[in-house]
Amino acid sequence: MKNVAVLISGRGSNLKALIDAEQDAYRIALVVSNVEDAGGLAIARDAGIATFALAHKGYARADFDDIVDEHLRAHAIEAVALAGYMRILSPGFVARWSGRMINIHPSLLPLHKGLHTHERAIAAGDAEAGCSVHLVTAGLDEGPVLAQARVPILPNDSADTLAARVLVEEHRLYPRALADLVRTL
Asked: Which structural domain range is residue 100 located in?
C-alpha cells in the first residue's frame, strides 16, 4: 500500500471520492491545501487524515512548493493526487514528483485545457464532454492522459448541468486511476 497526498483548494468532492474508494493500493496519508479554510480539510480531518494548510499569498511559487514538498516527505508520501488544486506548480516541484503525480481535469484532454471547460465545450458545439486523469508535467494540463470518462452534451445543457454530470464521472474515474498509478510504483 502506497502513501498518497491529495492537494486541494476547495470543497473536496474528489478527495471524498478518493477516501471512500481507498483500496489495498493506496492510503491517503496527508491532505494539503493552499486555502486555509478549504472545505475539503474538514472532510480529511473527519476521516482521521493529517492535514496541512497554508495560504500561498506572499510566497514565491518555488518557495511555497518547497514548503509543501517538505510536508510530503515528512509523511513518507509516495504519490500525489491533485484534486481541485487551483495553483500552477513550480518546475522543480513537478520534476521531483515526475511520474508520481496525477491530476483530474474536467475536459476530454487535449481539448479545453485550463479553466471554464464546460462553458468552452458547449460554446464549441462539442457532442461530448468528460474528464481526464493525466500525469502532471510542466505544461498546464499537458501530461500524458491515463484515463478518461465521457458524457454527452445535451441540447439544453448549461455549464452547471454539464459540470454536475461530469463530476459524477470524476468521482468514479479518479480512484481507479490513482490505484492503477500506485500499483506501478
From this structure: 2-183
